[in-house]
Each structure stands twice: as structure tokens, then as C-alpha cells.
Write a structure and sequence with these properties.
Length: about 230
């Protein structure tokens, strides 16, 4: 399958409507002045937010269409197919590297983890967001013998790989990443993943708080913030 052509078509059809609350949660872990690489940056919505708060940001993406849209936002972007080769940057080049819900789309996911760590400087910050297949709803469905494919959920049809927090931490630890913090985001707007009563006033805010506190069970996406060990 020609993934580059597929994602070119995908980004031609998809607009710039993103859950900005979730992106803001990621952005709070980036400080002004940091040299930041966002791998698979899409049309550059998060990258633009990081630039606005004072970071120096570079991006990569498989899709020519996505890269052009990100460049239109002032983000320098290289086209890279991480299933075929490395990132076009030297070792230890960035203070912070971000992967926002993209590794699950890659065939060679271990190679992607290798490259994220390679271009990060010693003691640099790695921010990885992944969909949580151990979300309580999927645990319940599996107990009942089900595994439904739901758009915008951990089983979105575009996902090639599935991760739990435990497995993601192990993959990062094997590459010298020390986890400083784990965060989570509920994405209560995802249809089919949550019962409607969780969106009611009062309940909504409590669940969002709880998903950040217990992301492995309650969050649609877990976010790992770690640091690369010294050289």
C-alpha cells in the first residue's frame, strides 16, 4: 500500500478541526525557547501553538499535503517516511521531541521509538501520546467477547498498532527514557466510546480530572513525559 498517497488524500479531505483542549494539554509540557521536533506533525496545528508560546519548532510528516499546510503556518517541515528510513537530523539535535498519536499508524513502530530517542539530546524531554487500548470500555467489551472498531477511539480503523501504558513505558525504558510523569485525556466527545450520562454537567469535569489521574484505566489517550538518560 502507498501510505504517502493514502495520507495525501486523507489530508486533502480533513480540515483543521482538532480537539484544542487536548493539544493544549500537550503544549503545557513545552517551555519557551526549546528546540522542538514534532514527528508526524500533520497540518501543523499543535506546532503552531508551540511557536505561539515561544518554542522553536520543526516538523516532519509522511504526507506532502500535510507538510505544505504546516509550512503555510510557518513551520519548517521535512517529508519523512519513518517506515522506510531515519529522521533527517543528527543525534542529540533537539531539546524536546513530540509524537502526538501517530506511532499507532506506523508499521515499524519500534524503529519510530528508536528515532525519537536518537535525535533527542541527553536529558532532553520526550512527549509521547498514544491511544489507550486498555481503556475501561475496551476491557469490558473484551470480557464480553467484543472488539468493536470505533472511529476516533483506540480501535480507529486507521490504527495499525495497539498500546497499553505498561507496554509503552517498557518500550521507552528499553531506550533509556526515564518517565517523569504520565498524563491522560478523556476525549469524552468520542461517540460510542462513552455512555451519554458522562457528558452531563458536573459529571464531565469529574471524569476529565479522573482520566488525568488514572489514565491507564480512564483516558482515551495516555501521555508519557520522559527524559533521555545522560550520554
Amino acid at each position: 500500500m502507498d501510505f504517502a498517497a493514502f495520507y495525501d488524500a486523507y489530508w486533502r479531505e480533513k480540515g483543521d478541526t482538532f480537539d484544542r483542549r487536548r493539544l493544549s494539554l500537550l503544549a503545557r509540557y513545552v517551555a519557551p525557547g526549546e528546540r522542538v521536533l514534532q514527528v508526524d506533525c500533520g497540518p501543523g496545528v499543535l506546532a503552531e501553538m508551540l511557536v505561539a508560546q515561544g518554542a522553536r519548532v520543526w516538523g516532519t510528516d509522511l504526507s506532502r499535503v500535510a507538510a505544505e499546510r504546516a509550512r503555510g503556518r510557518g513551520i519548517p517541515v521535512c517529508r519523512v517516511d519513518l517506515d522506510r528510513g531515519p529522521l533527517p537530523f543528527p543525534e542529540d539535535a533537539f531539546d524536546t521531541v513530540i509524537s502526538d498519536s501517530q506511532i499507532e499508524h506506523r508499521v515499524r513502530y519500534e524503529h519510530v521509538f528508536d528515532e525519537l530517542v536518537r535525535v533527542l539530546r541527553p536529558q532532553g524531554k520526550l512527549i509521547v501520546s498514544l491511544p489507550n487500548i486498555a481503556h475501561w470500555r475496551f476491557r469490558w467489551w473484551l470480557l464480553r467477547g467484543r472488539f468493536p472498531y470505533l472511529e476516533n477511539s483506540p480501535t480507529d480503523w486507521l490504527h495499525l498498532r495497539f498500546f497499553t501504558l505498561v507496554e509503552a513505558r517498557a518500550l521507552l525504558s528499553a531506550r533509556g527514557i526515564v518517565v517523569d510523569r504520565v498524563d491522560g485525556y478523556a476525549s469524552l466527545w468520542v461517540q460510542g466510546l462513552y455512555p451519554g450520562w458522562l457528558r452531563k454537567r458536573g459529571v464531565y469535569d469529574v471524569y476529565v480530572w479522573a482520566a488525568r489521574r488514572w489514565p491507564s484505566l480512564l483516558a482515551r489517550d495516555f501521555i508519557i513525559i520522559g527524559r533521555k538518560g545522560a550520554a
